[in-house]
């Protein structure tokens, strides 16, 4: 169950960071609310995962999921470009997260 919490925490982090892009200097209330609730949910799920998974592993997996998720959203939604080196290094993050899960 702890790894499901990590996944949920990472997804909430991605949602919150997307909302952060739309805040526009705190002028828009809905993205602020989404961002706030999303980060609270993300930290809640992360704290639940840390009950069963070592803190360093849980945090590394959470950060990795968020990083990869935001990179994917940036490419698909915001038409950001990714070069081959960026792809390789993001892939290494993915390998690391999967490796952490397999080693737990």
UniProtKB/TrEMBL annotation:
InterPro entries: EmrE-like (IPR037185), Small_drug/metabolite_transptr (IPR000390), Small_multidrug_res (IPR045324)
Pfam family, one: Multi_Drug_Res
Keyword Transmembrane helix: yes
Keywords: Cell membrane, Membrane, Transmembrane, Transmembrane helix, Transport
Places the protein is found: Cell membrane
GO molecular function: transmembrane transporter activity
Keyword Mitochondrion found: no
Topology of this chain in the membrane: Multi-pass membrane protein
Domain of life where this protein originates: Bacteria
GO CC annotation terms, alphabetical: plasma membrane
Annotated transmembrane regions: 30-47, 53-76, 83-103
Family note: Belongs to the drug/metabolite transporter (DMT) superfamily. Small multidrug resistance (SMR) (TC 2.A.7.1) family.
Record's protein name: Small multidrug resistance protein
